[in-house]
């Protein structure tokens, strides 16, 4: 059997779409379709249910996926390790949350790209929650507190905190809230990860007790840039991570509010599955993140984040 057929099948199974699989593999859609058909002929059973819009696996396809996914990843890692005497290379696929400013701001990735010209970065910015391994990603970037316990994680920067902010022009007109519950009387700019999902409830802490406030935002969006722009224009109060707003806070264009109710928490982490043989391209990114000079002096280790595993293993 041509093992390339299994690689095609894996891409189709993970992408659930022939076109997406062809783009991922860098081949034509026809080549993907023919590869799947040839594999099915060799197996003597249908592996995929095809429609004009999507692809799903048959029961036999699910069994095949379960049997080959990890072995094929190990083969790819082993082949990369054989070439490890040369500079790391290949496509490094990463899924990062849109609020991961320390990772997405530019300097960290720009320096990594300059240091490792043989590595191609393929970064998807998304706030959807999914299994990065099942979707074919090498690593992800999220807040430490929401990373699954079976993942290994490396902190990017130090602790994070969320801030409530408004422009001076808004505060001159409407005044500033004294307590988080006062926010229900203000014009708020909220966030939701996707259509059909309720706006994010703003979370606070008082006397050691956590609570949230449903602010009923007048404007809701999944675009952080729009939230910031509206706040800068005096359009209302918004709620974001401090790292996303630092330039505007330092310039005074946005004023922090209710800081006493917003304690810090574990920040953003690069996370990835535990594997016996780590691909050189991923190892290069991990080492780069751990050694980047912008990491704050008050760097907090992963042991302080109860939902993730210690970096001792990496």
From TrEMBL:
Q: Where is the HTH lysR-type domain positioned along the sequence? A: 1-58
Task: State the InterPro entries in the record.
Answer: LysR-type_TF_proteobact-type, LysR_HTH_N, LysR_subst-bd, WH-like_DNA-bd_sf, WH_DNA-bd_sf
Single Gene Ontology BP term?
A: DNA-templated transcription
Q: Which Pfam families match?
A: HTH_1, LysR_substrate
Q: Which domain of life is it from?
A: Bacteria
Keywords assigned by UniProt, alphabetized: DNA-binding, Transcription, Transcription regulation
Instruction: Using the record, list the residue span of the signal peptide; answer none if the entry has no such feature.
Output: none
- GO molecular function annotations of the record: DNA-binding transcription factor activity; sequence-specific DNA binding
Say which family it is in: Belongs to the LysR transcriptional regulatory family.
Q: What name is this protein filed under? A: LysR family transcriptional regulator
Q: Which source organism?
A: Roseibium aggregatum
